[in-house]
Amino acid sequence: MVRGLDHVVMPVHDLEAAARAFEKLGFTVSPENRHSWGTANRLIQLDGFFLEILTVADDSLITDSEGSSFSFGGFNRDFLNKREGASMLVLDSSDPEEDRADFEKAGLSLFDPFSFGRIANRPDGSTAEVGFDLTFVGNAASPDIGYFTCRNKFPENFWQPVLQNHANGAQAIKAVYMIAEDPSDHHEFLGGFTGQREMRATSLGLELDTARGQISVLNPRAYRSLIGDDAANAMIGPLPQIAAIEIACTGVTERRVVPASQLFGLTLILSPAA
Predict the structure, then answer these.
(1) For the whole prediction, is pTM greater than 0.90?
(2) Which DSSP symbol is given to 161?
């Protein structure tokens, strides 16, 4: 089974400032939501994919990862202590037990199962219960990137049409771009994680099509060619890293690149919808 892109986690120091920046780009951003372990988020929902803009709201509630127990809050707190930007790549899930079996078969490093629920705040002031089953895996070749699958237990409560209506016509995720000195180092892990064993490999990088959007792992030279010198020069943080996401927008007539230096550590590519 080939999994699809579900969301990208983006830790920032100032949640409200980041939300305003995305709103100025024509995105509708959800109200703030809180996690019981000390983080808060605001979401940008597309067609089956979302960007989770995250911050540390109460550091006293955050625990550290220990042994086989993975701490979402601790990982993102530690990431944010180094820099802002994209910290985690998340795929969708229909069955976490099947995910675990697939990951074990692929030889991936697994953490304990984790499930949680929270209250979602809607733009009209109402609330709804949402819940998720998460399956975390580790990749020693990219320690600064977190990976997990996410089963949405109440999709009818989570996905809200009003949040998927964007002034810029944003519709769908086209690609997530990662940068690595040697993209081939990530071939086996990403194949096992996504379930997609068919991928295009060149001297410039890897491309694999998921069930929703593409993952592209590029070397620095290829990334510069894709993104342009200005955006590439603004890149921060060690490699490998999640550097950019590309979103298809009906309200965009030509490709636009918003560099990481202008958007809290994540480069955004807005492309015309097909």
Answers:
(1) yes
(2) G
